[in-house]
Amino acid sequence: MVRINLIPVRQGKKRELGRQQLFAFAFDLRRGLIYLPGQHGGPVDDAVLAELQSALTLTFIQHGKTRKLDSEAKVFQKDSGDNRPIQYSFKPCTWFKHQGGWEEIVDGNELSEQPIEIVGPLNPGAAVRHVAFASRTRIEDPIERALPIYFAIVGCVALSVNRGTGVLLVPEVTDLTAFAQYRPAMTPHSPRDCQIASASDAALQAQVRLRGKHMTVESIPAIHTMTFRSTPWASQQKSRVLSATVPAGNERRLQRFEDALDYLPPRVAQKVEKTTTGRGKSKKTTETTRYFWADSIVRPLVADNLARDKPWYSDFSRKMIGADRNKLSFEREGLIKMTNDNNLFDDPGEQAIIRCVHTALRSRYAQIAGESKSNPVAMKNRFNREYERWRLAFAGSKTPDQFRASFADLVSRGGSGNKALQQFWTQMLPFLRDRHWQQARDLSLLALASYESNSSKTSNEKEKV
Q: 88 CB contacts (<8 Å, ≥6 apart)?
């Protein structure tokens, strides 16, 4: 518990000074970065504060009048952990609205008896609904409710997706004393932990961190999420566009998400930037390698599915038909590990379908390699065309019959030596029926994305059939 000492002065002045000190301590600034002590259990890195401040400017204090930021950004570097420095930037902050909140809740030397207007910086999304009826459509609360709302910025967690979309985590609190102990565990402790890919991803990461502190479900039974992004009708601000709730207490869900986070973590990517100086013969080009965080494109799908109690691979077909399909090669290693993890599946038939597609595809590639071994370029082109053929066949299936026809076509072309089909066909059969055909389609596309050739396997790895 934090004790704020009061200077012994007149009673009315003491109250005013106490409120001022409370707000000054709770809403602090350090080295130009917003620092909320209630969110942290110890020392915190500037890179983390920079990421959190960026998220606050997308949620609580997104309007320019609610904060004062320098016009020029401050840039610094921090090692990612493997000798690859990542660049962080922030605009130093000198003031934000919450710091002066104590003046708005007092009337003279006493707490105000008049309702307090609740605006966006206190409750993101709150606003006057109609300017012609401002007094009727604005949100107001009595002082006993307005005062806690000022501290919502401390109790909630604001994060960002690629520093363009704000995500707000609102914990459901039943025991305020216990929450004060657990609250620091919700906050990311490293720049890597600040990388999120969706609201569900952020909520489940927070629940995993809370589980590590042995938090009881009764203390925070759920985390409510809100997503803020620009909309066509209000491009100048980030509007609250999506809301969802992720209940706590589902151990299997958390374990599966923790496995997915381990298999599909944020990675350090690099970009070569060229700078040209001089002209003519004195022209020189300098290349600089810049490192940055690149998050998984599959993990947000996994998180959304787990939050909705669906199989983690549901709707994987969407990843195979959009622009993201070109980035799946970065996820291949993680997807291979996920498809090999028995704990991530509820039915052996799910993995059997994946193995069956892997085996059939490997046979097709072996046939192509035998026919094109004298022309490596033609072999590679045929490999690519074969992959695209089955990707389009599975992803383009709109009915159970279309999918089953494509699945049977691949298996038959792969030859009669498909051990997965021979051994587990009874377990696969329920997924090929009308009720589960979309699930089988997602599994087949997941098999394509996680295919591992024999040449890429290490000597101690064996194919699981």
A: 46, 47, 50, 51, 75, 76, 77, 78, 191
